[in-house]
Here is the input.
Amino acid sequence: MVQLHQASTLALIGINILATCVNGSVGPPSSPFIIPETRGGGSTKALKRDDDYLSHSTSTSLPHQDIITADDDQSLEQPRTSLLGESHSSSQDGDAADASTLFVKKKDGRLEPIDKQKILRRLQNLSDGLNLSFLSLPKLATSILLGTYPNVTTTEIDTLASETAASMSTQHPDYGRLAARICASANHKSTPDTFAEAMLLLNENGQGFVNNEIADLVKRRGDEINARIQDERDLELTYFGFKTLERSYLLKSDKETIVERPQYLWMRVALGIHCCKSLDESGDAFTTEEEDANLEAAFETYDLMSRGYFTHASPTLFHAGTTHPQLSSCFLVQMSDDSINGIYDTLKRCAVISKAAGGIGLCVHNIRARGTFIKGTRGVSNGLVPMLRVYDVTSHYVDQGGGKRPGAFAVYLEP
Here is the structure.
């Protein structure tokens, strides 16, 4: 009987609570969707998101409810403010609403909202000639947008876009070509508009890395040379090829900013080969006829290289047209003598060659074997292996071109 009485009591309590809720005197606990208005002592209004759950109650919400105070009925339609302090209407479509919370920092410092459609249009403009049947540009644009963050720069967006496209090249090779075109387009935006401007910038009035002969030539015949540059051929490079040129071959300023475009590289190399005198030639200037002939030869070389018919060795690409015109790629060196002086003199020669981006073939057959008697010290030789460790460490320390390529020493013994 006691249990039955307790059950009846609990049932009555439940009925009373339900009746209270229906009459509106108590709202549902923790109702984050209700936005009351108390301006001017007026009646409280509520915004419903679920008619089955919320009612137009005029009673005051419980203190423990999560509420958002609004000044008037139009507060929900006012522009919302992003993290960066600029406002954008909340009535935009889904993509625009997401993008309005993020801003891109332009080169002049201005902040603009990231626009997915602008990204998509840029991808479409760079996709000419690609097989769009296998490329999903909207999907790529969405992936790029997801990788952005507040105050991202245009350069960082270009890097993100190229890396995202390159990561999709396993789906179709044209994604890789598109990635390369994004890189080339970004390179064109950040480099001088003409070849002559780039060379004069790198020459730095005779104090820079580009040869004075190249600087004088572009001052006199810059318009003619600029007219031969075919910038659109940069769009035909592969992603791996462009990133290799960007990492090691395109000349940079003292601030590590890339100044050259791939087409400028080919033209600099061509002019350096045909229009610059070697160090062992006389200092007399070319005659007008010689200069014209040299320029035509340089234009032919540029045209063939830029179209991918052939290329020169890396040291030629590094140094042609510069103040250090070391264009040779491979050197054969013989050990000077089987002595401390001979071994370390040869090591110095190898280091100097490696500094100038040369690869070395080293003959060491005249070095005595391990255990061989040394007359000067009355000791025995440690042999080839300890000596070659020293050469190996040197090849790592003095790499080719100052970090452009690893050093390369090939050691040979006669049978």
Summary: The longest strand covers residues 330-334. The beta strands are 80-81, 87-88, 103-105, 111-113, 152-153, 330-334, 359-363, 373-374, 379-380, 409-412. The chain has a mean pLDDT of 78. DSSP finds 14 helices and ten strands in the chain.
